[in-house]
Design goal:
12 helices; alpha/beta; cell membrane; 15-stranded mixed beta sheet
Length: about 850
């Protein structure tokens, strides 16, 4: 045991002072200390004082000695919320967003925070039901609980929150509660402008949710960029679309897609004259296609994949001059595609696939200069007149015109890739500057720094052309301007659509000075994004932000402890005598314990063996994010490695599903005796896995090297392997899903080849090593045969051939020369139809 440092002794000293020395109310101090005991990675400033208000703890704001605000977004908090949070009775603002390891149930005592106006828990891992006690928070105006692991129903008591302006819930099931004589319901929320219930499993109908009293309130209250938003996509809602919806004339965006709505679209939908975005896709709507000619502000419309009566393309489409995107795939349309539709001045995208259009396609004349994509896949078009020099996307595959020998060789008769999204911020001016793996190049000054990163999800985009830099330049400029950052210090990347038609944009934000943000800067930026204080440029629509945890805070020494402040120095002088006595006592105690500690370290420290033998020299693994698990921990979470927890096996050993103490599901790969590696090889593999992080790679959570065991602990990927889904499970994967899986796998491999330092070659790409998550996103797994490849002039390394026969690159097999090309997955490897 080491002697305690001076800062630690100061904590002991200040903790012993009477309450009169503290500026903070004792009840609030006790509540925060209880929260600290349940958390890891809380701000280091909390360790230096027992007085949150007087010492100005990071993330804590006070008024007259009472804690009124906790803004702790994106600081990598881990643990659960203590029920003592209910003691912070003057708390007005609570933001714990983007702390993905903050888990467990939400305590019912949160209902005691009667002064709370803002509650933001986006991007955490809270489980269980949403407590009914939230209905006690009558001052609440902003409630965002999406991107967690909540289950169960929407509490009816939320209907009592009559001051609510923003309501965002996800992962819930059951019907939407409607008020009755005995129970409140969400129809009472007449002031709520934003209902975001997308990506739930909600059932039932929307009948009764939109009352006539809503209309007047929403017409006169305009306090945000979007007057009124309704997002109900990706649920299991059924019944008809309620006619009451047409009475809310201030409505600007509505998404009801990917549900089970039936019947005709209400005719009074034409009353929504302020509507910018309308999405009714993937339902079972029938009857006549609605007349939207009065919606002169409409930008994007999607009516695809319904059961409307067969008809020609309605003439009113040709009069909506503001349209940027039209999608009526599988809409029962026939006749000739009118030439005028391609001349709409703002039009960027037309999707009319899987209809019965016939005759001649005429794309000549004054075609809109913004038009980037026309998809007429699987129609009955027999001729096509295309403006000479037209070089944008046009898909005519599946039409008779592509059987014409003169036209069949045209690129329009093949599936074309959309244009590559250009980089928005240019870093070419920085030359060949490179940074370490955990830093990035700051485009504002070409220096290396630790960026604050996250992903913005835009849930209803009002434009379709992602190749237009202007949109994203405005987004970048708005971010650094509104968030108070240095001009040019925001970098956007990985711009793409998700399977839910959300636009996701990876954002890197860099500090204005130095190489790191401090805690207060990170929590401020995270809170402004999660609370919607930042307003995106027109066209991007409503969004939510999920940040990556930030771990390189400025103002801390190498051990992660805060530098000693002036106040601390004064405290040392006052407490000098006490500290000296305590130091002497602890020094004697430490000396007596030293030998016993050294004797036990070889038994209790699983790293002790690394570095003893010559072949194992090098010390313990240098980890980046992975943690050490004891054998007992993993034995417990798998029920003694019970057979019913076994989810796979291979040459390495068996794989078990386990549930950690915090509720996290993991996959534990346990080596069998004959396949165990030497300590040095196992150490190298851990170091390799702990430093690669990508959405298309399975993440290493930790490992165990104890009692002769070699175990790797990975994130649990729920949908198993690609091979299982194609064969054993029998889940149908259509071509679109398979293509996404192939692209996701390729992105993971590209990361290993191009962004890992040094590059990594997988060497065993096959369908059993591609895992699929809940959304069928591909994650490359099993790096047991991976090879680190330093840059060489040859472009390859000579090595013994390893891998699975039938999946090996033939050139690698014959030449024994390993290169990045050796990882290019074949159709056989990914079990895709060639």
């Amino acid at each position: 045991m080491k002697a305690l440092s001076i800062p630690v002794l100061l904590v002991i000293f200040w903790a012993s002072l009477p309450a009169g020395f503290c500026d903070t109310d004792p009840q609030d101090v006790a509540a925060l200390q209880s929260l600290m005991r349940g958390w890891q990675n809380f701000p280091s400033s909390w360790k230096a004082s027992n007085d949150p208000c007087g010492a100005q703890w990071d993330g804590i704001t006070c008024n007259n000695g009472r804690v009124t605000s906790m803004r702790l977004s994106s600081i990598n908090l881990e643990g659960t919320i203590s029920s003592s949070i209910g003691q912070l009775s003057e708390l007005v603002y609570l933001d714990l967003s983007s702390n993905s390891r903050l888990s467990g149930p939400l305590p019912t005592s949160i209902g005691n925070l009667k002064q709370l106006t803002t509650l933001i828990l986006v991007g955490c891992s809270f489980t269980g039901g949403i407590p009914q006690e939230l209905g006690n928070l009558v001052q609440l105006s902003f409630l965002a609980l999406n991107s967690n692991k909540f289950t169960g129903r929407i509490p009816a008591s939320i209907g009592l929150l009559t001051n609510l302006f923003w309501l965002d819930l996800a992962q819930l099931s059951g019907p939407i509660p409607i008020s009755s004589t005995t129970s409140p319901g969400l129809d009472l929320l007449i002031h709520t402008k934003h209902f975001h219930f997308n990506k739930n499993q909600l059932t039932g109908t929307l009948n009764g949710l939109f009352s006539s009293s809503m209309r007047l309130e929403h017409m006169i209250i305009v306090t945000t960029l979007f007057t009124f938003i309704r997002l109900f996509d990706n649920n299991q809602l059924s019944g008809s679309i309620p006619a009451e919806l047409g009475s809310i004339t201030s409505l600007q965006i509505i998404r009801l897609d990917r549900n089970r709505f039936t019947g005709a679209v209400p005719t009074n939908i034409s009353n929504l004259v302020n509507l910018n975005g309308l999405n009714f896709a993937d339902n079972q709507l029938s009857g006549t296609m609605p007349d939207l000619s009065a919606l002169t502000k409409l930008n994007a419309i999607d009516l695809s994949n319904n059961s409307f009566d067969p008809s020609v393309l309605p003439a009113w489409f040709l009069e909506l001059k503001t349209l940027t995107s039209i999608d009526i795939a599988s809409g029962g349309l026939y006749g000739q595609v009118p030439n005028r539709i391609f001349t709409l001045p703002e039009l960027q995208q037309v999707i009319l696939s899987n209809n019965a259009f016939n005759g001649t396609l005429d794309m000549t004349g004054n075609i809109s200069q913004h038009l980037q994509r026309v998809n007429l896949l699987n129609n009955r078009i027999v001729e096509a007149n295309i403006t000479q020099g037209y070089n944008r996307t046009l898909v005519l595959v599946g039409n008779p015109v592509c059987l014409d020998s003169e036209f069949s060789s045209s690129r329009f008769c093949s599936i074309q890739q959309d244009s590559i999204i250009p980089n928005v911020t240019s870093i070419t001016k920085c030359g060949s500057t490179s940074c370490s793996s955990d830093q990035s190049l700051n485009p504002a000054n070409c220096g290396c720094a630790y960026p604050y990163m996250g992903t913005i999800f835009f849930r209803s985009l009002l434009f379709a052309d992602l190749t237009n830099n202007e949109h994203f330049q405005q987004l970048e400029t708005g971010l650094w301007t509104e968030l108070g950052l240095q001009a040019g210090s925001v970098f956007l990347s990985d711009i793409s659509f998700t399977s839910d038609d959300y636009l996701q944009v990876k954002v890197r934000m860099f500090p204005s000075t130095g190489t790191s943000f401090n805690v207060s800067e990170v929590t401020r930026i995270g809170s402004e994004l999660s609370s919607q204080a930042y307003k995106p440029p027109p066209g991007f629509g409503p969004y939510f932000f999920v940040a990556d945890p930030y771990a390189h805070f400025a103002g801390e020494d190498d051990s992660g402890k805060p530098k000693i402040s002036t106040g601390a120095v004064a405290g040392i002088a006052v407490a000098c005598g006490l500290v000296l006595t305590a130091l002497t006592s602890w020094a004697i105690f430490s000396f007596l314990q030293k030998r016993r500690t050294e004797e036990l370290s070889g038994q209790t420290n699983p790293f002790a063996s690394w570095g003893i033998a010559q072949k194992d020299r090098g010390g313990a693994p240098q980890l980046k994010g992975a943690r050490l698990f004891s054998f007992d921990e993993l034995n417990t979470c798998t029920n003694n490695f019970a057979e019913n927890n076994e989810i796979g096996s291979g040459g390495y050993g068996k794989v078990y599903k386990g549930i950690l103490a915090d509720g996290t599901s993991v996959a534990i790969k346990r080596a069998e005796y004959g396949s165990k590696q030497g300590a040095l090889e196992f150490k190298n593999e851990i170091e390799l896995l702990s430093r690669v992080h990508h959405k298309n790679l399975v993440s290493l959570i930790g490992f165990c090297y104890e009692q002769g065991e070699q175990m790797l602990v990975y994130e649990y990927v729920s949908n198993g392997t690609l091979r299982q889904n194609l064969q054993a499970r029998g889940i149908y994967l259509d071509w679109k899903k398979r293509l996404r899986i192939a692209l996701g796998s390729a992105r993971g491999l590209a990361y290993l080849h191009e962004l890992a330092n040094p590059p990594i070659i997988h060497r065993d790409v096959k369908s059993t090593n591609i895992l699929l998550d809940d959304n069928f996103k591909a994650k490359v797994a099993d790096f047991g045969l991976s090879k680190l490849v330093a840059d060489t002039e040859k472009g390859h390394v000579s090595t013994q051939v390893k891998g699975t026969l039938g999946y090996l690159d033939p050139e690698y097999y014959m030449t024994q020369q390993l290169s990045e090309k050796s990882d290019v997955p074949t159709c056989t490897a990914l079990a895709l139809s060639c």
